[in-house]
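user: At home tonight, take the chain set out below, taking as long as you need, and be ready to discuss the fold:
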Amino acid sequence: MKKQNIVIGVAPTKRGFLSMEEAKRQKEKFMAVIRGIHPDVVTLVDIDDICENGILFETEKITQVVEKFRRAKIDALFTPHCDFGEEQCAAGVAAAMKVPTLVWGARDERPNTDESRGRDTQCGMFACTKVMRRFGVQYSYIWNCETESEDFRNGFDSFIRVVSVIKAVKNLRIAKFGARPEPFMSVTANEGDLATKLGVTVVPISPNTVAARMDQLIGENSPRLQDYVANVKQRMDASGMKEEAVERAAAAKLAIQDLMEEKHCAAGAMECWSAVTVLGAPVCMALGELSDEGLPVSCETDVNGAVTMAMLQAVTLGKEACFLADLTIRHPQNDNAELLWHCGPFPYSLKDSSSVARLVQGQERFELKKGPITVCRFDDVDGKYYLFGGEGKGVDGPETNGTYVWFETNNWKMWEEKLMFGPYIHHVGGIYGNYKKVLREAARYLGMIFDDADEQGVYSL
């Protein structure tokens, strides 16, 4: 997997006339917490070399802080309030940087008395966010809570994931392998709008180019290909396939991976079944294996599906694989469960430990594991972008072919109605974990309309 790298500028603020000693104490407490949150992914850029104790309260220091953050190419900004703070300083930096901004301040321990002045932190957060709104700053916030609380830790973790999704989309290059299969009008996408509105670039690559690279790998009889074939056969029962068919399916994975990396593409959309005659092998297994490499590729040249998968992988900071599934049938006994299925392109890493993986005609066959799953779909209509999202869990259900998981929701009828009347198709992305609130927040920054699967609809009869 390919982990994200998130750079966050940290610009604590205090009110000029309030206690520096207390502000410093607050800063040391929250810095100790955030340094321990995804240190393998997050780089923190402080202002200790510019401001007294690394806390911004003088307006004349705004320019220097902004210049440092620009040199560091920060992806996001954190403006924690050590007390009431200086809204002109916090908002001034945020307005200049124009990156996702997080506002928070620690809950005050006590009110003011005649003998001593407290911090009035929450009061200052209200003032600061008003100024940020006026300056056009897009910001998130963690509610006024204790530094040592799970609320603060979870809130900062969620913000990192939001930034990861935004960064993934705005820098996304999608390898488009071939045209869509003729019957699949539903997967059409506006590549021009993706580029101008979101910064997503679609890079065309011919299936003939993939086939030629596959032939090259097989003709060279490279140790890399042979090692990979052995690895596949060790993990999956391929006894029903001829040796040369397994080799060609493995070569497809390596060829697609090489071409995506050469074109600097982080996701892909594959023509798949209609390109089998060109490639000489199904690419189902290749798609699942590529997702495990951190290179998610959608089926049936679903470009918006590729964007969906890139967002889901980013929500895990690039640490977990995602999958793209068909919404197929309702559970025979469970009214709130749906079959998430496809012919064989799911990541092997998500396989249930009790399910035996088989490779049949180049297509994987196994069941995914149980547990919490977030499902979403990025799509468009009438020049507007939407993100459908909801949470559920993998549950027991009848065995079937291909790769699959039975997915239980709180109320499938509401889900189905949203999917019927929204600009969505039968393809949805899935990721293990609960990430709906992160996706909702990322959609707000990206100018997408978030469509909550669990909100009551009004259309069904």
Q: What stands out?
A: The first helix runs from residue 20 to 34. The longest strand covers residues 384-395. The radius of gyration is 25 Å.
